[in-house]
User: Fold this.
Amino acid sequence: MVYSDLETISPEPELAIPDGLEGTWWVAHTRSRNEKVLAHELQQLDIFNYLPLKQKITRSSRTGRKSHSTVPVFAGYLFLNATETQRHRALATNRIANMLFVAAQDQLVAQLRNVHRVIGTDAGFEQFDGIRVGQWVRVIDGPLEGVEGQVVKQLGKLRLAVNVDILGQSVLAEISAPMLEAIDMPESADDSDKTGTGAHATSLKNGNAYS
Assistant:
């Protein structure tokens, strides 16, 4: 089942995200502002995809007028169910930066149905990244897979602070929350916090606040 209109997905979660699809679920990390275009192109390729959307209201600072638009709930991400052949066809659109494999297939289906139920009601909602600023994490996908560090925020973007404790300094790498898993704070980091030489102490010393 592939929807023909992004604005008119079935209100029923079990129809919007059905059982019995022949492929495997993947999360497509799209190139900037390519989510809706990619969804339409995948539809034309007969590749099932799910793109949760929400209404966004903005007001012009010049005229004061409100404008309405439909934007993705999870900016930069689209969910697709594809065979291996279809996955390569999706990548060939050149609208996908990388694909995230979904190990817990049934869990993703259940969670997407929950999301669909929430956004299909009149209740207000907002998107929330489960990975919090200050949390210790490990990268689980992409070129930085296996790297561990602390989540910080700089210029409105999430970044991974990889610390060199003996120097009390860090290097920052831009990262997205779905590519991270939470881990316990390393013992060395706990010691650094006690002596004030961790990433947060360095940020204060330099006059910058990450969050």
